[in-house]
Amino acid sequence: MSRFSSVLVANRGEIALRVIRTARAMGYRTLAVYSEADAGAPHIRAADDAACIGPAPATQSYLSIEAILKAAKELGAEAIHPGYGFLSESAEFARACDDAGLVFIGPPAEAIALMGNKAEAKRRMLDAGVPCVPGYEGEDQSEAALQAAAEKIGAPLMVKAAAGGGGRGMRLVEDLKTLPKALSAAASEAENAFGSGELILEKAILRPRHVEVQVFADDHGTTVHMGERDCSVQRRHQKVVEEAPCPVMTPALRADMGAAAVEAARAIGYRGAGTVEFLLGDDGQFYFLEMNTRLQVEHPVTELITGLDLVELQLRVAEGRPLGLTQDDIRLDGHAIEVRLYAEDPAKNFLPRTGQIRLCEPAQSEGLRFDMGVETGQEISPFYDPMIGKMIAWGPDREAARRRLVGGLKDSLLIGLTTNQRFLIDVLEDATFVDGQATTAFIDEHFPKARRAAPEATLQDAACAAALLYRLERDTHHAASLGVPAELLNWASGGPMPTRFVMGAGDTRFDVTVTPDEDGLLRIEAGETRHVIEVLTLTDTRCTLRLDGKSRSMGYIWQDGGAITLSRDGRVHDFQNQIALAASAEDAAGSGTIAAPMPGLVLEVSVAVGAKVAKGDVLAVIEAMKMQHEIRADMDGVVAAVDAADGLQVSAGDRLLQIDGDG
């Protein structure tokens, strides 16, 4: 037995929170580590104690074995859970934990090393009788050997890095004439990503399903599988949507695939949680792809259909206790689907995005589970994976789970930076996915760049934004007034008083007027277009408006200076009232203090202390609400102070520069 009472989680974000939650429930003392960039992260507060392990770059913190072991010693850890990513599949880290007298909550180092090399793993699986994709996994890595193997395999084929995953070091070769270029590119990418340029070749199984089987083994001779997960919906060979069970699985196929997965684990003396991944062809044939020697990102879907806590089982097995389950004990109930919420721009080839999450408010509904690693006000930094978290839905059948997940995504608020929220909704509502027919080619075939583009704001969106701004500003003024009865709101002795708003959204402007009537309705006019809006409910982050007789619920953030962001059904639009912006600048004219008229990012400061400026000169440029705003001098003078700098995030009212008019 390797009993322990304290667990250090050598990771960050949602997986750190996930492990800490179960470990604390089991009575363990929980310990966290964090980089300087994560000093205010939620997983630190969730743990009983925590230690900083270095600067923001992962190589100096979360990937530093020395730093983590030092923290473990300082905090009094007895066991280490690696989570996923970072060091979770590092045989060196597992050995270092063993050498330091720490229990590594994962498989033996030998199993990690073996399955971490695709070539060696495939050779071992072939010896164990596990079905494998025809290919080449030889030690001779010369171009001549690879070329000869490729000609024998035939096109199309896949070139893959032997030492890695996640789509890096991988190339599809559809014509053998392009093989030399693919070999060179894949080897270079693999060397940079994994420190090894070793490659394998495999026959390309076009449009397969990516199906993986969850396995678990203890030190008492028990190895079981817990059903499968379909992870076919991918972008750039990285998973986006996962579900369990697989939509096309049959009992016979599950039995065969599960048996192959169990045999793969037994063949390498496995212990703990692992995942054996397969490619499933449309002919029902399946082939070994790789084995992940850790807990998977998508493990919640298995938990929801089996009722098992996989982290709890990991801790149990790590202590040397029996798994306590047989294959007959495992039953699959219902269906679960998970999506990964990323800070990325689907329209720009899923380019990662950074910035502050101004509002993170997941939906609350039956059958939904959120594994989130961030919260309102937190920064998404460029140093780590941009995954914000995961939303998982369970239902008695696949369609019920899908509907719940779509509803949860539409009702969740993620405001402050570009995310894939709306893209995920579109994926889940696509007819091919609804029918359960998505393969690994699904996103490429069904979501070209044009379909991934964020929708432009409409006049109706602008009307709602203007109506909400009117109501919020009215309520603010009323709260600050002295003795004005509520019944006088929207009343004026001269009759209805229209208020003009010029709502800017990107490069588009919507010129509208808002006129209240005695019944509290807001009449919106934009040229010849008319709308009637009634504010039905209003909280700090959500509202329900009735637009021309139809209710629509949405989330919002309101900022000083006429800036408002609306979020509805995963679509987020930033609006800026240009009239308020101009008025703000005019009010500050002549003071010499140049302040930010709104929250934003300083793109450029064009003057320095001592520079002579004239009224109207451009001093700086701020990006806010997806628009660039020139900040101009409000008087003649000399620049006495510069507080702004390129790349600085500023709030409304922050001083940017000071001009001395006596110069």
UniProtKB/TrEMBL annotation:
Pfam families per record: Biotin_carb_C, Biotin_carb_N, Biotin_lipoyl, BT_MCC_alpha, CPSase_L_D2
Annotated ranges, domain Biotin carboxylation: 3-448
A single MF term (Gene Ontology): ligase activity
Cofactor: biotin
This protein's UniProt keywords: ATP-binding, Biotin, Ligase, Nucleotide-binding
Domain ATP-grasp: 122-319
Coiled-coil regions listed in the entry: none
Superkingdom of origin: Bacteria
Keyword presence, Nucleotidyltransferase: no
Lipoyl-binding domain span: 582-660
Name of the protein in its database record: Geranyl-CoA carboxylase alpha subunit
Organism annotation: Lutimaribacter saemankumensis
